[in-house]
Design brief:
heterodimer; A: five-stranded parallel β-sheet
Chain lengths: 472, 195
């Protein structure tokens, strides 16, 4: 046996098509996911040069960013409609499978890949979307690309990439009751900053990571890009294998057992070396709430907003003050004193069935606070159906939530699901950038449980105490 | 793609860190299916009021920077979404060079596909340019061949760039054409490993 290797090295070595000194390497792409927003110019580029899609069988498209989540067959916005129609025409012309809004497999691209078993350990996966890192939860090397690279992959099924540097994020200890995978990844970004992962592929390791379910692991890997890392992954284990067993696009029977052994062998070898490493202990983490305009501007729910006047660095002072001003908050303001007007439970970070179950547990028997508009947007048509089979829709609707169709929705507000200027939203999504949920909208990122509790309380509340007071 | 070898132009200083691609081009403009015409939407929410009038508190609206072609930003420029609409907007607005202390990976990569030269400089040099260009017109000359910048008030600095990226910009390559020269290697890979 040779030198111990990380999973990233193993996947990389298996995918190099061509290498030469002083150049990036040409690597093969196993799976290319496509959606309506970042693909039209790529298909147009192919047409202009009379090029074909090299492997339509390794390409899979859906509609998610633009789709209405209410009355989905009436698309009022003609520009959105045009973009969706264009995807349909492109998929027809180039022979690509498409889950359009009438298709039972439709959903957020990062929800349906895993759900269909298209996402598998050891694969290289790309998509014109930065949250492609989500698929890393399976031990795949998955990263977001721009539209020029979408065109490149369509034409050549390959990409020029520099050998990635690896960064280990080790999480020992155990998450406390009421503390979720979302809180863990927010705490990691708060501790190490929005660019500690820039230039790296992150591998999440440690006891606390091993204990997470696949859906929780997806939440973690999803937000790798918010730490600057294009890709974040977790070595496959029995949890990974069991999640994939029986999924539509994975092998069946004996063939599955054989491929499962291959998947498990991809895990990072003991003693493998990383280019960098950081550590955090899960047991120290509390439910998190972002207060600012990037995901590292985040504190435990029991804390207060920062005071820029105590900082020495003028640029940092300025950046915190700017964020507080945008968010309409004061320095040293208690997080639990902040009233909210909107709650959004959804997005590729937190719209899977387990997210909806956990939120429903909090909501059950309660009522959405007066003056709060709350909505649940399942990540896929299939998640929606499963939730309805379990009666979760009734729990949400009875409490006064809106129950919507699948899509990206209020995470980026490209459809009609918009937070009005100056209003505040507790959101389970991944970005609290200025204007992300609507021009002038104020976003606070939280877990589904924290969002559900905030909906009933009308302001942020520690979900651990909330559970106790309502007898949950 | 237009090759870029040398460029001389006026600096526009944007003294903010973590300028994300949602700020560079807000999502309401991502619905277009064309590649051109995004410049009018650059930094839209910072440049315009709700009624479409220009905001006087945003420096890009200052006529002094009307002809700027070199954008100087802070840390972690271009973070967030992978949208290539961000470099399309920057380029279409008239910028050829973006200078920052650091860039987000996807944005950095996207620049090279669109004939924009992203340059990383040490913080004290970026701060120097930001400070200078705040109150007066500063012209910067960028020499990609020799990997050097020179400002008209005397700052001279060298910058790093990977040879592959440099060649791409100098030659204005269409990357797909380059890769298609390796079609045999891709065929072979597929025969052996990826049927």
């Amino acid at each position: 046996m040779g030198r111990p290797k990380t999973i990233v090295e193993k996947i990389w070595d298996q995918h190099v098509i061509h290498q030469e000194e002083g150049k990036p390497e040409l690597i093969y792409i196993d799976l290319h996911l496509v959606h309506e927003v970042t693909s039209p110019q790529a298909f147009e580029g192919l047409r202009m040069k009379n090029r074909k899609v090299r492997r339509p069988d390794r390409t899979y498209a859906t509609m998610d960013h633009n789709v209405p989540t209410l009355h989905r067959h009436i698309i009022k916005d003609q520009i959105s409609k045009k973009q969706m129609d264009t995807l349909k025409e492109n998929c027809d012309e180039f022979g690509i499978r498409l889950a359009d809004i009438n298709h039972p497999d439709q959903g957020i691209v990062h929800i349906i890949g895993p759900q269909l078993g298209l996402t598998q350990p050891g694969k290289t996966i790309v998509c014109g979307d930065s949250h492609t890192s989500t698929h890393g939860a399976f031990g795949a090397l998955a990263f977001g690309i721009g539209t020029s690279e979408v065109e490149h992959v369509l034409a050549t099924q390959s990409l020029w990439q520099a050998t990635p540097k690896t960064l280990k994020v080790n999480v020992d200890g155990e998450l406390g009751t009421g503390v979720t995978a979302k809180d863990l990844i927010l705490a990691i970004i708060a501790k190490f900053g929005v660019r500690f992962g820039t230039g790296y592929v992150v591998e999440y390791t440690g006891e606390a990571i091993r204990k997470l379910s696949m859906e929780e692991r997806m939440t973690i890997c999803n937000m790798s890009i918010e730490a600057g890392a294009r890709a974040g992954l977790i070595s496959p284990d029995e949890t990974t294998v069991e999640y994939l067993r029986g999924k539509r696009h994975v092998p069946k029977g004996e063939e599955f057992e054989a491929v499962a052994q291959e998947w498990l062998s991809l895990a990072t070898d003991p003693g493998a070396e990383y280019d960098a490493a950081v550590e955090i202990n899960a047991s120290e983490i509390e439910p998190q709430v972002t207060w600012g305009t990037n995901p590292s501007q985040c504190v435990p729910v029991g804390a207060a907003t920062p005071d820029p006047s105590v900082l020495e660095d003028a640029q940092e002072q300025d950046s915190i003050q700017r964020a507080l001003d945008y968010m309409g908050l004061e320095p040293n303001q208690d997080i639990q004193s902040i009233p909210i007007e909107h709650v959004f439970i959804g997005s590729c970070t937190n719209s899977r069935i387990s997210d909806l179950r956990k939120a429903a547990e909090i909501v059950k028997g309660g009522k959405v606070h007066e003056g709060v508009r709350a909505m649940v947007v399942p990540g896929s048509f299939s998640v929606k159906q499963q939730a309805e089979a379990e009666g979760l829709d009734t729990i949400f609707l009875t409490a006064g939530f809106e129950w919507r169709e699948a899509g990206c929705s209020m995470c980026l507000a490209m459809n009609d699901d918009i937070v009005p200027p100056g209003e505040r939203c507790a959101s389970t999504s991944n970005r609290n950038f200025e204007g992300r949920q609507g021009n002038g909208a104020r976003t606070h990122l939280v877990s589904p449980e924290m969002a559900a509790a905030a909906a009933l309380e009308g302001s942020f509340v520690d979900v651990r105490k909330f559970g106790a007071t309502v007898g949950g | 793609m237009e090759p870029i070898k040398q460029h001389t132009g006026l600096i526009y200083p944007l003294d903010r860190s973590n300028v994300d691609t949602d700020q560079i081009i807000p999502k309401q403009f991502l619905k277009r299916i064309e590649r051109q015409g995004f410049g009018q939407f650059l930094f839209y929410n910072w440049r315009f009021n709700d009624d479409g009038s220009k905001r006087d508190d945003f420096s890009l609206n200052n006529p002094m920077y009307k002809d700027a072609t070199v954008l100087v930003g802070g840390e972690n420029f271009g973070c967030g979404s992978s949208r290539e609409h961000a470099p399309w907007a920057i380029q279409d607005f008239g910028f050829k060079v973006v200078i920052a202390t650091s860039f987000a990976d996807i944005f950095y990569n996207n620049c090279f596909k669109n004939g924009i030269l992203p340059i990383m400089l040490p913080r004290h040099e970026v701060n120097h340019l930001l400070e200078r260009a705040k109150d007066e017109k500063v012209t910067l000359s960028v020499d990609l061949v020799n990997q050097q910048i020179k400002s008209d008030h005397g700052l001279v600095s060298a910058f790093d760039i990977q040879p592959y990226h440099k060649d791409m910009l100098l030659n204005g390559w269409d990357e797909i054409s380059v890769t298609l020269n390796y079609a045999d290697a891709i065929d072979q890979y597929e025969t052996e490993k990826a049927k």
